[in-house]
Design goal:
The structure is a homodimer. Chain A is of the alpha/beta class. Chain A has 10 helices and 16 strands. In chain A, α3 runs parallel beside α4, α5 packs parallel to α6 and α6 crosses α7. Chains A and B meet through α4, α5, β10, α9 and α10 of A and α4, α5, β10, α9 and α10 of B.
Chain lengths: ~375, ~375
């Protein structure tokens, strides 16, 4: 990966390998196509217009986003089909913005409560185009979402409020885990919960043509005929967590933080100029430290402050000297991308582009 | 704290109580004055020109920052005395920017290695104004910094490289701890290490007029005659970590995240529309969850995703209903501030100002 970095790079910086990125994007698109799934990648992981465009060109039918303002950012970038995969609670401001979005793009929004469905219906009353809603289902992650059997009631209220109910969705966050068993179990939970919820919609006389699941760990693990849409996010770049749980290899890592060695306090210890304000602080139980160094796979990032990463090298391993530039793969890619104003794009040691993180900080 | 929030606030948002902020600023300024310490607050915690101005007006002689670009942001905001409290490794770009900064402001920079001191001297050769350097000392946190006895050698090399050596500094990060004992021990470590390092400079015939220590937990715990400058950062706002380790009370919390209840999946559970992209993911061993809810002090934020906080309420506690707006105090304030484009300033339910986070994302 070091050959990726241009000479004279100012660190810290996030650097993308566009060849690996393209391979990750086309591989997911191809897998979706061959198994008959619609693909609606989650744009929260990259937040860049240039990457959205590549996903759509590769065959994605639209994008998923997490917030109204993230939808606005991608609508401005020209994406015309957006699913806010979140149970939006529209205040007056968000209601106005949702109506404007519905005028500009094919808009889909999540609901997960009777009150939320009524409120969303009120917010979107009078919008020029119908807004499609999907009922969120809790498939075992226990965050938001209704139990499958309650999907019918929520869907009914949404339909009564003037919304067009088209299906169900879930986030199988419990699919993150060290063992492949966790991913398999979560994929089964998704299939079962989404299947029951879709049936509950149909029993209420509603449409359930979209059955949407999937984060990067569980995609492609379902039987045909149930789940019919994928919403993976992280796969474009992958990260140290995906590497640790085995959903990608080192060759699939498309984004690194470039960092300079600013201190060598001991033969087995170096300090880098990247910290939590570049890498993020996310650390799942399945990763060993605060990031992964591809050139020094036995090294561990044992300490992370805002602008310091302390790296411990195994005894006897020759480490990089003061002033060397090394690369660090973040634990969870969605956080560092959201901290950066731009991603540098480099190929064979040449800086070939700079992509603005157009949807950075779009939290409302 | 709820009375702070204006009606119709769009969530999530970071909201500052300017009265509490002003009290925190003047209290620290007064304590420094009365004990004879110079005060050079760390601006990384707030990154706002308006707060820098308040700190300087209250008596701070200058500010501390962590990076060259953070210094540039505050120089643009009119701050004319800046200490980059970091062992900067100047590449060609940083060298050019440091020279420009040295033309515009009274600039002080950290060094902690012989090679770094030489390189900094080369970088600043020919700058119009002399740049002062401080040698960083490891007082027990084991991040960057030399052992006290090595300060003389690094200082000598810096002086030979044309830099003006003026003293020593340290970050006593090991002062974070549940018990007051940890803070006391770290304060003693600071005094001893800085004292020995200052003596090492003097033994080398160098000046050691600045003896700079202190993060929020250890300030004011030193004996007179040793440490003579403070660099606390978090004290302007405080946070759930400072509350947990006992360096502030609830009444000293000057910044909250305003969040809407978007889901009530069970009587003892609510989900808020703030997640790690608003609150940050930092979690020290001394805090119970991912944030503190002042209106529901017995509640625990048990789960945090990018746009969801799952909050568990003790059995039988009436929780806020769907659509309610509540406040969450972040675990570590420096991270959420760096995620936001602006801070809302509210008094008695009125929005009175918006402060741009001018130094957001200044990592290089």
């Amino acid at each position: 990966m070091t050959t990726l970095l241009p000479e004279g790079l100012v660190t810290p910086a996030l650097v993308v390998d566009p060849d690996v990125l393209d391979r990750n994007i086309s591989r997911m698109a191809e897998a979706s196509r061959s198994h008959g799934f619609a693909l609606r990648p989650h744009a929260k992981s990259h937040k860049c217009a240039e990457i959205a465009e590549r996903q759509l060109r590769a065959g994605a039918g639209g994008l998923s986003v997490a917030t109204v303002s993230e939808a606005e950012a991608f609508a401005r970038a020209g994406v015309d089909d957006l699913f806010i995969a979140y149970p939006v609670w529209p205040d007056a401001d968000k209601a106005r913005r949702l109506r404007r979005l519905a005028d500009d793009v094919a808009l889909h929004v999540g609901v997960e409560s009777v009150e939320g469905a009524r409120r969303l219906g009120d917010a979107l009353r009078g919008s020029a185009r119908p807004v499609e809603v999907l009922v969120e289902v809790d498939s075992g992650n226990h965050r938001t979402g209704v139990l499958p059997e309650a999907a019918g009631e929520v869907g009914q209220v949404a339909a009564d409020a003037g919304l067009e109910v088209v299906g169900v969705f879930t986030f199988p966050g419990h699919g993150y885990g060290h063992d492949a068993g966790a991913r398999e179990r979560a994929a089964r939970d998704e299939e079962r919960s989404l299947g029951e919820a879709a049936q509950a919609l149909r029993d209420a006389g509603l449409d359930a043509r979209v059955v949407s699941g999937g984060s990067t760990p569980t995609v492609g693990r379902w039987q045909p005929g149930g789940v019919n849409e994928l919403r993976p996010g992280v796969y474009v770049f992958n990260d140290a967590t995906q590497l640790a749980i085995g959903t990608c290899g080192v060759e699939d890592l498309a984004l690194v933080a470039a960092a300079t060695v600013i201190s060598v306090p001991a033969p087995d210890r170096i300090v880098l100029d990247v910290g939590s304000k570049v890498l993020g602080s996310d650390r799942s139980p399945w990763v060993t430290g605060h990031g992964y160094l591809p050139e020094f796979p036995e090294a561990t990032v044992t300490g992370l402050w805002e602008h310091h990463a302390v790296v411990r090298l195994p005894d006897g391993t020759p480490g990089p000297g003061l002033g060397s530039v090394v690369t660090v793969v973040p634990n969870h890619i969605c956080t560092p991308v959201n901290l950066a104003d731009e991603l540098l794009v480099a190929k064979d040691g040449e800086l070939v582009d700079r992509w603005r993180v157009a949807a950075r900080g779009t939290n409302t």
